[in-house]
Every structure is written in structure tokens, then in C-alpha cells.
Design brief:
The chain is built from no helices and 8 strands. The strands form 2 sheets. A 4-stranded antiparallel β-sheet has the order 1-8-3-6, with no helix packed on it. The radius of gyration is 13 Å and the shape is globular. The chain has a single domain, classed as Sandwich (Jelly Rolls).
């Protein structure tokens, strides 16, 4: 688990990944915790897992996860059947 900067205040990093019919890895972002949200306009359910073929949970349009602990966002993979029509927003605190 990482520690916060010298001030102790969290750093918040945000990003967007475009959907993909084949599984892709989230970006390399060190973290203490993270949240993921499926954009409200998405047309399909996104699958998120800890390996290419290991779906841990699915997230529908407009849904957002609770905060979860993770050392690096790249530990997760995502995919969705609509391909690039959908997007996931991620929020990392470190």
C-alpha cells in the first residue's frame, strides 16, 4: 500500500477509458483507493476484472462503484460489447 505525499493530503487523479470489445488494462496509476463510473450515456454493460478473462463485476450506464483499495489501477481490466461507443471514468486517490 502506498503512502500519501509529505503533506498527508490526498492527490486526486481522474481519467477516462474508451470501451473495447476485447479486454484492455486500465492505465498505470499508483493508488491508495479508486472509484469507477460508467458514463450515463453508455449503451451496454461494462465488465471489470482482475485478469483478461476474469470478470469480477459488471457496471451499467450511470452506475458508480464505492471506493475500493488498490495499489495500482492497472491491476484491473475492462471490456464492453459495444466497443468504443461507451466509456468509463476513473478516479484515483493517492
Amino acid at each position: 500500500m502506498q503512502t500519501r505525499g509529505t503533506t498527508g493530503a490526498p492527490q486526486n487523479i481522474f481519467g477516462v477509458v474508451t470501451g473495447s470489445a476485447s479486454a484492455l488494462q486500465f492505465p498505470d496509476e499508483p493508488a491508495i483507493q479508486a472509484k469507477i463510473q460508467a458514463r450515463a450515456g453508455n449503451i451496454s454493460v461494462a465488465s471489470i476484472g482482475n485478469a483478461v478473462n476474469n470478470v469480477v463485476f459488471e457496471i451499467e450506464a450511470g452506475e458508480v462503484t464505492d471506493w475500493f483499495e488498490i495499489d495500482n489501477l492497472s491491476e484491473l481490466w475492462y471490456s464492453n460489447p459495444s466497443g468504443t461507443a461507451d466509456a468509463l471514468v476513473w478516479w484515483v486517490e493517492r
